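Lecture 7 notes: from sequence to structure.
We start with the chain below.
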Amino acid sequence: MHTLRYLGTNYYTREFLKTSSRQKKFLGQHFLHNPRIIDQIVGFIAPQPSDRLVEIGPGEGALTAKLLPLVHSMDVIELDRDVIPRLEKNCGPSENLRIHMADVLRVDFAQFPTPLRLVGNLPYNISTPLLFKAIESINIIKDMHFMLQKEVAERITAPPGSKTYGRLSVMLQYYCETELLLHVGSGAFSPPPKVDSAFIRLIPRKHHSVVAQDKALLSNIVRSAFCQRRKIISNGVKKYITATQLEDIGINPMLRPEQLGVDDFVRISNSINASQLSARTP
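Predicted structure tokens for the same chain:
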């Protein structure tokens, strides 16, 4: 027997459950069905007998069924109640599988056994907010392996100076070591998406070369800098720091945001944080 739990209901969840299977296609559901790709993904995850995996968006359980016999237990989070019977059938009877019918954006990851190993074929429409949600729980996460839209995966792993380097690159690379492991064509999914996908690995960093003193401020600075990415950095963050102050910390104020490394943004954030703390001191 499986354990089926209902976690978190909200307007989005209720409206989702009303939609037809055809409509759900437009909410980002594309089930992975290619056995060769699934085997490669299992190899990349390298599940261990003591692992307690949390899978996001298991769908009909193609990946779940491969991982479940290899680990201690699995918690899977699935919003679509219509696929849960097929998920249960494909995984067979197991006391080690707990199915949570929930909107993952409303789920508290702290409820699961730690350290967390997160895996999943993420619905394209929520992949970015879900990644930002995950970094809020980064201290309890061991690693993450996700299938994403190829464009999103390339943005996450992009180096400074590239066209795809942006806010997502900086924030995810501050918190994690990122690696694009596999490109996956649309034919590996049902229904096939209109874009290609990629499988990535994210491992939380144990050490930072420069530590952000205020992570919320860092996020705000990065968002402001890339809001108009063609602007030079001094214009993008001018409400926080002057061009002269940027020069004082070794940042060329004439560079564009995509030309700055992750540590550069952390140094900018820390300088602003120090100035704000100084201004508050009587």
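Points to note: The two ends are 63 Å apart (CA to CA). Residues 215-280 form a domain with the Helicase, Ruva Protein; domain 3 fold (CATH 1.10.8.100).
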